[in-house]
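Hi, can you check this record?
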Amino acid sequence: MSNLYKTNHQSQPPVFDVNNIFQDSFNFNNAAFQLFNYQFNNNKVYRDWCNAIGNTPDNVNSLPEIAFLPISFFKTHNITTGSFEPSVVFTSSGTTQSSTSRHLVKDTALYEKSFVTAFERVYGSTSNYCIIGLLPAYLERAGSSLVYMVNKMIGLSGHSSSGFYLNQLEELAGLLQQLEAQGQPTLLIGVTFALLDFAESHKLQLNHTIIMETGGMKGRRREQTRQEVHEILGNSFGVSTIHSEYGMTELLSQAYSRGAGRFVCPPWMKVLVRDEEDPLTVKNTGTGILNIIDLANADSCAFIATDDVGIVHEDGSFEVWGRMDNSDIRGCSLLVV
């Protein structure tokens, strides 16, 4: 594999065809090396980082050896592969003490392809669901990749009751009861603090509804463990399992958990783990700080060193335990365990 990769590196690499990652026959390792090669040659910020730490296409032979760009660079640089006018710029919510991340997206159709395909691999067609977004804080600002995703899924669902809810909790409770009476499969996707607010004010028995939290307290409530949050939501909504979505401003792909906070990536995304004391030591499995390969990030950077702490299991699934000490608190940060 490495010999083929290095042979290809001898000449200017062709444009990386990102659409191939959605084909069943694509090889992740080969695609990752091709994209590493392409981004090294066409992304100056990333190339400078690779050179600074000494991990370049000439001496990388395995996925853990690839250079992972610190996620904080999205706050200080425009991270682009090639030159283009972005069709949208996604931004993190940030805090008053920190700058926000900016993800310049060349083609929103690619983002849509990624999140729709990833969701439907796990849950089936979006057209099967009434999709309800409980994302109040994110609706109040522009540039949220989460709002963009849920809004698109609401449109694809085609259900007349699909939509966003701000603070209309009484109306939401009534709608969910109507959908339950109809036996309508429903997805209620929301930020954690909003779901907890709803759970505290309404007790429902939901047999046909998936409750999916996306993380995020935004300083609205005290931090709670994922287990505590899921127990509260499960008791209030009469469900045995709380689902979760893992995504961030800097990615174009998401991982999903169907319970217990254990996430599974789509085929074009992979999570590795780096050592907290030696960030250049990266492994395929184990505990530490999470590094992500998102091949959908062909036009920005596909290789990102996050601030999330967790574990990567032997089967490639992973858990997020919290965020590194001293890292910025962001709206999409996941719950501390």
In short: The mean pLDDT is 90. DSSP finds ten helices and 15 strands in the chain. The chain has one domain: 86-337. The first strand starts at residue 69 and ends at 70.
